[in-house]
Sequence to fold (335 residues):
Amino acid sequence: MAVVGGDGIGPEVVAEALKVVAAAGVTLDTTAFELGAAHYLRTGEVLEDALLSELAGFDAILLGAVGPPIGSSAVPSGLLERGLLLRLRFELDLYVNLRPYNGAPGSIAAGCDFAVVRENTEGPYAGEGGVLRRGTAHEVATQGSVNTRHGVERCIAFAFELAAARRQKVTLVHKTNVLTYAGDLWRRCFEEVAASHPGIETDYQHVDAACIYLVERPDSYDVIVTDNLFGDILTDLAGALSGGIGLAASANLNPARTGPSLFEPVHGAAHDIAGTGKANPLAAIRSAAMMLAHLGEEKAARRVTEAVLTEQTAMAASTRKWSTASVGDAVAGRL
Ligand code: IPM
Ligand code: MN
Fold:
């Protein structure tokens, strides 16, 4: 597997994730890569074609976090987002962004267990659009949402298969009352896939309403499936409701397995706390557990996930001062 520690707290949380994987008894053949803001500043490159080809040959990629310090002007805004993170998602066809949530004690979603399946290669993220008469009073900017039957169908199919292995319920979240073309495609694909999964309960919510219901009754969800932009927003809301972004894990999956999948905590590089030992590594550790599951190490994946959830609960009940390494040690100790 390829390991990209990245910037800020990225390398610190990845080190704890690898520590825990080793404690689970899994030996990984790892190769470290430098990518992110530091790589860009050192080389002037965001993601060299040769590096991308090399990464495509791995079984999995574990990424910590990438990004410059907030307010830094050395890296143009959007450069790493589009040039690195989104490029990896698009070129490696990581069409599902799977984000699981288990509400920590004391959080609004305490005790809840749900997952968001976010479409990860299309929607407004595809890069469609353009600008005319830039800088004039008559400037025009468009940014269309790209939705293909192929892309929507495969994402929804993944959500139903996931629900079949969980609590048998899928909620489609969109905005079909306003986004009538894209929404119509999503709704029809959803109904078609649902018809071939008769045992799975289905529901539909407009995205604005879903923001209310997620806060008011987070326990009513099993699997949520939604488009790229709604999924980006809803998953940060879900993270905040479940105990914070320090717990939010993600898997950028290529379920067709035509190449590697990429696993990363949802949080960013957090340069303000880098090197202080304050970063919570649980999101990175849980992302590594998702990687183990994808690599066929199901038993180790389950054990690591359970240890993370147990530790998450223990930490909520304790007044002890935790450090990044002590959290990693505690999870490893449970294994
Ligand atoms: C995420 C992030 C990314 C996204 C950014 C950094 C491009 O916010 O993984 O949720 O919008 O998908
Ligand atoms: Mn996001």
User: Anything to note?
Assistant: The chain has eleven helices and twelve strands. The chain has a mean pLDDT of 98.
